[in-house]
Automatic annotation (TrEMBL):
GO MF term set: glycosyltransferase activity
Pfam families: Glyco_trans_1_4, Glyco_transf_4
Origin species: Phreatobacter aquaticus
Protein name: Glycosyltransferase family 4 protein
InterPro entries per UniProt: Glyco_trans_4-like_N
Alphabetically ordered keywords of this record: Transferase
Keyword Ion transport part of the UniProt annotation: no
């Protein structure tokens, strides 16, 4: 099969980019011809090594740029002889839809960021992939029929991005609590800071590590600097591969207010952390509905603190949840994601006949 992926760029530190790159590499490994058309970025060398072609299509939203990109997408679909196009962002779907119509081939879209209003544009797809059951239900409420939706839960284990990665744990003071992600309000970091202040007051040896960057990083640093636990919090910034931090951590926390299906949870589980996540969007599904990780309500620092204290104060309980993080972990492989996605393609191609 000739599969053309369309997304805005291939730069690091964006979850949808990681998911698309992982999928393209896995599809190529399964013997398919794969191309990624985008504005390019950090992963282009990896894609080339994996036999994946790349092409440049601008995703600027200015009228003249959009017109040019529409023409570029149409020409690429025809000249590369794609069997289908897989669009990963809203602008990508808009650019791909007329090209697919003219070529008579299916458009498959993936809803990575369901919380954005423009996600409804992913309904342009012949088939629409939701990255969790929660996202599927949300998109149905927004008018996309269940007949066109398919759920393919995110997973990263075995990703080509991780080949040759070091598994030597980062040395962290124990008990260690780790967050990895963007510094955005929807990630709920102020809740974690408030919860950690409660934990640290009772267990002064506890340490909190924050890996990642984003527009609120300076504000969060300032917020923590005024807290009594400030000396126990480390802002490590962005890391090219945070797996070593996960491998060195006792507890991984994701206090999100909204998170369709965060890839970081499969990495934290693979690293063997005890995991705490909030009961929003795809997080419960990625934690086996509480079997593989502790679930707490979002926006509730007191409940989060209780869960953390239980693990910090009870080494046996901490080990129990480390072990439980491995529950059904084989379901989080990129090979499974690739094969399920190919099943969606087959359904789209059959519909188009």
């Amino acid at each position: 099969m000739r599969i053309l992926h369309l997304l805005n760029h291939t730069r690091r530190l964006n979850g949808h980019v990681h998911a698309a790159v992982d999928l393209a590499c896995a599809q190529s490994a399964l013997g398919h011809d794969v191309m990624i058309a985008s504005e390019g970025g950090d992963f282009d060398d990896l894609l080339a090594r994996k036999g994946i072609e790349t092409s440049v299509i601008s995703h600027q939203r200015k009228p003249l740029a959009v017109a040019r990109s529409l023409n570029a997408a149409r020409r690429l679909v025809r000249s590369w002889r794609a069997d289908l196009v897989h669009a990963h962002m809203m602008t990508s779907a808009v650019l791909a839809w007329p090209a697919c119509k003219l070529a008579g081939i299916p458009l498959v879209t993936t809803v990575h960021n369901e919380f954005e209003r423009s996600a409804i544009l992913m309904g342009l797809g012949t088939r629409v992939i939701a990255v969790s059951e929660a996202v599927s239900q949300s998109m149905q409420k927004r008018g996309i029929s269940a007949a066109r939706l398919r759920v393919v839960l995110n997973g990263t284990i075995g990703s080509a991005r991780f080949e040759g990665r070091s598994r030597v744990p980062q040395e962290l003071a124990s008990p260690s609590i780790l967050f990895v992600g963007g510094q955005h309000p929807r990630k709920g970091l102020p809740d974690l800071f408030e919860a950690f202040a409660i934990v640290h007051a009772r267990h002064p040896a506890a340490r909190l590590y924050i890996v990642g960057e984003g527009p609120y990083l300076d504000a969060y640093r300032e917020m923590v600097s005024k807290m009594d636990c400030a000396d126990a919090v480390t802002f490590a910034g962005a890391q090219e591969d945070p797996f070593q931090w996960m491998a060195g951590a006792d507890i991984f926390v994701l206090p999100s207010h909204a998170d369709p299906a965060p890839l970081v949870l499969s990495e934290a589980r693979e690293a063997g952390c005890a995991v705490i996540g909030t009961t929003v969007d795809g997080i419960p599904q990625l934690l086996e509905q509480g079997e593989a990780g502790i679930l707490v309500p979002a926006k509730d620092p007191a409940r989060l603190a209780d869960a953390l204290i239980d693990l910090v104060a009870k080494p046996a309980h901490l080990q129990l949840w480390r072990d439980r993080s491995q529950t059904n972990i084989g379901h989080l492989t990129i090979e499974r994601v690739a094969r399920e996605t190919l099943d969606v393609y087959a359904s789209a191609l059959t519909k188009g006949r």
